[in-house]
Amino acid sequence: MRVKKIKAIFQFKPFSPKQKKVLTWWCDNSPVKDKEGIIADGAIRSGKTVSMALSYVMWAMEKFIGQNFIMAGKTVGSFKRNVWIWLKLVIIARGYRVKKATEIGENVFIISRKGKSNYFFIFGGKDEASQDLVQGITAAGAFFDEVALMPESFVNQATGRCSVEGSKFWFNCNPEGPMHWFKVNWIDKAKEKNLIYLHFTMDDNWSLSEKIKARYRSMYVGIFFKRFILGLWVLAEGVIYDMFDRDKHVIKDEKLKSEILTNGRLWYISNDYGTGTVFTLGLFCIYKDIRYLVRSFYWDAKAQMKQKTDGEYCQDLKKLIDYIKPRQVQAIIIPDDALSFIAECNKQNIRPVRIYKRLPGSVIKRIRIQANVLSSGKYFIFNDASNEPIIDEYSSYVWDPKAQERGEDTPLKQNDHGKDMEGYFHDSVNRILKVGSKPSGM
Ligand SMILES: Nc1ncnc2c1ncn2[C@@H]1O[C@H](COP(=O)(O)OP(=O)(O)O)[C@@H](O)[C@H]1O
Ligand SMILES: [Mg+2]
Q1: Atom of ligand 1 nearest to the CA of 441
Q2: Tell me: the pLDDT tens digits for 387-425?
Q3: Which residues of the chain have pLDDT under 50?
């Protein structure tokens, strides 16, 4: 079929010198061929995965026969999507044969050429089954794509399985915090462990045009820019939204407000439902491609010394809906843990409710999105008295220094209710409006 054929073509551009290093370091004429392995870290989209995955298979096939090789991503699914699909096509085009080894396992492949075969096992560092499975094999090599997203225990198990003479480790990743286990235990010890260390930037990927590079640069601000674009292992410290400027982001323009109330069509309400603490609602409008928090509701049960019922919260919600009448709300975004509130909205026929699924680790993604809309002039807050608590939170929403010591990025669990409520909104509308294409592996 035609479509299939078109898909099967992967056009290589010339490899950059750094990619060439990744591709050739193990070759017989290389001065570093006896190193134990290689680490490539740095910017997103800098050509790490493409060069490393291809080199790994070529090395394995050149140096071994009948051995097992570990290939790991954050999950099996993400590895297949980000690496395996194109890698398979590329190696087939280079004369290798790829066959599923179903008799061994669901994610095992035999790669052969010129009568030589090896087995390649795909694992997901975060998949629990992988942790057990990897213990059962003896391998001649392990390749970890996006290693910083995997648990250290998995990487230790997998590297511990590489007992075949001549086996090597292959790692690539984007940076995290400087206390991250991979930075401390592998990159900082690269010399000691006899590993090659290469740092990539987008200029090391010659397939990217200046325009595309500029687009990626514009997608990240603050620590995300430093990590994903500059490729640095920097600490997330201090105020999270340090780009927030009251003089710039809090607007008083009454004319604009009445224009939005008259002409705005894309209205949303977002919620954060803290048990026993803060309940908050925000009324947002997207007008001429810019997001505005027009009005909000903020109930601090502790400060007020009164916990409201879900029925009462529904009354507060209705007041916000009535505020824009006859306009309609496109979605009422409620986090998935606010089950009783969702049930009460259903009971009272308040709609359309859109449940926000809070996936583990997703707070960082929401922070990245919100930092981006703030810094790119896409998000403003009206100077309405009801918005004051939300505005105030900007100065006290900070990174948790204890979590940083553990190598994790987490906001301190304080004064974060308005920030969560805003984050659920920005993430949801990005999905609804399909804003912001996501680089693979992120
Ligand atoms: N030499 C090359 N020829 C063609 N495309 C390339 C080349 N190097 C990288 N790319 C493409 O650039 C993009 C980013 O490369 P990738 O290896 O995934 O980067 P990273 O792993 O650093 O994020 C991918 O779409 C990849 O296919
Ligand atoms: Mg990659």
Answers
A1: 23
A2: 999 999 999 999 999 998 898 999 998 889 999 999 999
A3: 1-6, 437-442
Which pLDDT does position 17 carry in this prediction? Answer: 98
User: Closest Cα to residue 298, out of 411, 385, 369?
Assistant: 385
CB-based burial, 268-286: b 16+ in 10 Å, e otherwise: bbbbbbbeeebbbbbbbbb
Cβ-based neighbour number of residue 112 at 10 Å: 14
Answer whether 13 contacts ligand 1 (Cβ < 6 A).
Answer: yes
Radius of gyration of the chain (CA): 25
Other residues' Cβ atoms within 10 Å of the Cβ of residue 40:
24
Q: What is the DSSP string of 181-230?
A: HHIIIIITTTTTTTEEEEEE-GGG-TTS-HHHHHHHHHT--HHHIIIIIS
Domains and CATH numbers, the chain: 2-229 (3.40.50.300), 246-432 (3.30.420.280)
pLDDT of residue 57: 98
Q: In this predicted structure, what is the pLDDT of residue 128?
A: 87
Give the C-alpha separation, 300 to 243, whole Å: 26
Single-letter residue type at 6: I
Tokens coding 1: 């079929």
Binding site membership of 205 for ligand 1 (Cβ less than 6 Å): yes
Nearest-atom number in ligand 1 for the CA of 145 is: 21
Give percent above pLDDT 90 in the chain.
88
Looking at residue 330, what DSSP letter applies? E
